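Journal club prep, notes for RB
We'll compare a predicted complex against what the paper describes. Inputs for the zinc ion case:
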Amino acid sequence: MNQEIKVLIELQKLDISIDNFKTKAKAIPLTLEKTRSDFDSKNKDLESLKQELVKILLDKKQKELDLYTKEEEKKKHQSELNKVRKNEEYFALQNEINRLGKDVSAIEDGILTMMDSSENVNAKIKQEQELIKQEEVKLEQEINRLNGELTAINKTVAVQELQRSDLAVKAPVESIALYEKIRKSKKGLAVAELKKNFSCGGCNMTLPPQIVNEVRKMERLVLCENCSRILFWKGE
Ligand SMILES: [Zn+2]
């Protein structure tokens, strides 16, 4: 095998590896973003529970004020009972007192229901806070893991890029240029193996005997007639 094709094969291996690592590295910020937004949405659930609790407590406060007003009114009417002379006035007041009494117990029921719901929401908040605490630890670990992975990938890519430039000078400038040109137009794969059945490893087309012979000799760079990739023969 001549030096030129050996360099191109090695170059191709390195480039595939660098491409793969770069694709992985590109995906990491997106994963990070998703991890963070998943966590944020859990935080939002907690916030809406807190708002729900505030609303219940405000409503309860309002009901308590209503209760106070009605009770005061009822007391006032009860003291008036002693002062009225006419029967119809007495009954009217008594009716009013009964009505207020019903209102008062309805409001009291309402307050009890609100106390129940505020207890429920409070329990949910505590549960959610506990969950978020655990999620926060997981988030921190995941962020560290992803950042570590990114750093490791970047280091490997830097090393491989150095190896690549050391390697590239070992082949003629024109073949490197040809390699780059094909790589660009063929989605990263410029060098393809000539398979045992004499088909091109890049496009699967079976190649004529003359091309096969030339590739096997490896005296010069031979391109696939169909996909224009540089062909190489691994040996018997
Ligand atoms: Zn081909």
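Talking point for the session: The radius of gyration is 41 Å.
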